[in-house]
Amino acid sequence: MNYEHINTQAEIIEICDYFFDSVKKSLFGVCDELSIYTHLSCRKPNRQRAKDYLALLKS
């Protein structure tokens, strides 16, 4: 079974940084370019940004 990634690591981190005030990244690899796995621990959601985004989708 083949898997296709829709978003890049950088795009996912950018989105998490936008919606959360605290994002911790852990890599399974040497650096971003040579990692095969990235774990993001996201805390402190920015609820106002989430509400604004959902309102934008409804309009």
TrEMBL record:
GO terms for biological process: methylation. Keywords: Methyltransferase, Transferase. GO terms for molecular function: methyltransferase activity. It comes from the Bacteria. This is Methyltransferase. It comes from Helicobacter bilis.
